[in-house]
Amino acid sequence: MFNRLRNWRVQRIVARRPIAEPLWRDALQRCAPTRRLGASDQATLRVLATLFLERKSLEPTQGLQLDDADRVLLATHACVPILKLGLDWYDGWHSVIVYPDAFIPRRPKVDAAGVVHQSDSLLAGEAWGRGPVILSWADVLNTGRKPGHNVVIHEMAHKLDMLNGDANGFPPLHRRMDRRVWTRVFSSAWDRLKDEQRNGLDLPMDPYALESPAEFFAVASEQFFEAPANLRQHLPDVYRQLEQFYRQHPF
Ligand SMILES: [Zn+2]
Q: What is the CATH number of the domain that holds 54?
């Protein structure tokens, strides 16, 4: 991975727009998943965050201002999932729109019966198929305050999921991974959590995971990076599949 980044173009970008040391230290401090990384992985993440800021357009809206430290923090969160995959996994889209706070999506939603609803629920984030990622900055700043939550990783997981079509909890798997095993592991974990929910038990992750297979994958991805010990303890098979997919071993 790092070798692939060592071409002249990358070096030029990184040399021209390096992330200043104090901003980088601040981002490491505020982005919990980075603290488990060794020095070489942190260095790779810093290069990826630099390139992310070069290639993507961060667009604060509704009067929100993002300073350099904010931008570096956002890019750092965003690059955690692709640390071992590469920035190519975020190809095909350009913008990250950032609202000051939770927002109501403006576009109408079409349900399974083809009925169009105007959504009235507040969202912390949203990812469109070939379009932008949309985030609430208040929720980005809340990352880590609620254990296991990370809205940036959540939306980026949807982006990875949508690389092979609709968001359905089935991202493009690597050659050595078994699609049947992935499906079996995620559906049996889903069934177990549904049962626990029906029985009024506390779930080991945000119950929003049970909205759909896509949300299950996104919430499990948040857990994998933000609270890996918890995920590994409660859903070890899901943890192992995510280890293979993200090629990282956070616990
Ligand atoms: Zn989601």
A: 1.10.472.150
